Each structure stands twice: as C-alpha cells, then as structure tokens.
Amino acid sequence: xxxxxxxxxxxxxxxxxxxxxxxxxxxxxxxxxxxxxxxxxxxxxxxxxxxxxxxxxxxxxxxxxxxxxxxxxxxxxxxxxxxxxxxxxxxxxxxxxxxxxxxxxxxxxxxxxxxxxxxxxxxxxxxxxxxxxxxxxxxxxxxxxxxxxxxxxxxxxxxxxxxxxxxxxxxxxxxxxxxxxxxxxxxxxxxxxxxxxxxxxxxxxxxxxxxxxxxxxxxxxxxxxxxxxxxxxxxxxx
Length: 238
Prior knowledge:
Helices cover 28% and strands 26% of the residues. It has helices spanning 41-51, 65-68, 71-76, 87-93, 179-182, 187-199, 217-237; strands at residues 2-6, 10-15, 19-26, 29-33, 55-59, 82-86, 121-123, 128-129, 132-136, 145-149, 154-156, 161-162, 168-169, 204-206, 213-214. The chain starts with a strand and ends with a helix.
C-alpha cells in the first residue's frame, strides 16, 4: 500500500494505484477514513505504524465494498478505537438498503457490503469528529458523507468527486476509469452535493479514487459544469 503525506495532518493510503483511504492526525492519534477493499487491513495498520501514531477512530464515507471492505478486519485489531459513521451507513452495512420516500427512487448501484462491526457513535451532518466536520454528501450513494478538516481546509470527499483519469463529479463517466460513475446512484443529487462541497472552498481535495488536489476549486468547478450539462440534457429529454 502506497502512503503519501499531504500537509501536516493527512496521509493518503493507496491500493492497486486507484483505491484510497486516509489517515488524519489528531492530538490523541489518527482517524482512519474508510478501510479500502477487503484484504487491506494489514496495510492500513502498517501505514499507521509508519506514521508513528495509533489509530484511535475509524469512520466511513459510505458502505461500498472499496470503502468499507476491511472494516471488520481493521476494527478487530483496534478494540479500543471509536467507530463512528451515520445511522444510514450503519443500516446499509446491515443489509437494510431501502430508499426513503423523499429520495429519488433510482436504482442503487455499486457493490455494497454487509459488515458486523457496530458504530460506537452515530454521526449526523454538522457533527465534529475530532477536527473533522461531517458534511452530507449523497448522490454517489444515499448514505455518503464527506469530512472537512477545519484546521487546514482539507476535504475528504469519498466518491463525491474522482480525480482518477481526470476530475469528475460522481456519475460523470471517465472512460479510462469509469467505475465510480457506474456505481453512482443519482447524478442530479451528486451534482447538488458537488456544488455544496465546492462552496466550502476547500484548500485540498482528497477522494476515493485518484490523486489529492491542492487548490482544487478550479478543477471542481470545471467538473461541476460538465455534470450540469449532463443533467440539463437528461431533463430536456425526459
């Protein structure tokens, strides 16, 4: 697993060149954001050892297999760690994937996984997890959230954007790496999330697939414009 530091507090952990999870430094240790695909637990724990701090929190952006796949394996090795994710993600991990009545009734896409690990804390949008503010980020999946580091403006956005094969909003296909788009539930909702995340004016964008962007606003805006054209086209055809 490749480990790359960004700024003072963020480490990107990359498997197979395109699948990321993250470690965030806090005063008491590290927060792990996502657990990558199954079989990543050993690499994640080794990366934390390389940083020289214990993992004291584990959280998830959403319940797809490439983000929650190693949740059980990691948490089994960290019995004292806080485990925090939203109630919706908790339900998805238990196989409860019904859409709410007020949500777009589009087909859920992507590989969701069932896991036995239970949250010790349920998160809501606006909550603080250490230095990270929880931000609702649905669209790629109904349960997705992002994390905004109040200290330096780093935004860990899950699959709300991708940068692999070019920056794109979830649901906009990049042919050299189409998988996030193929796994996206509802493009118009993903577009609304992308606009809201851009409005946070992040100084750094960290995503599930692709490189971390410094000063990402122009790239995010260009990706939003492409998604807007797609959504408007779909609306005109409906």
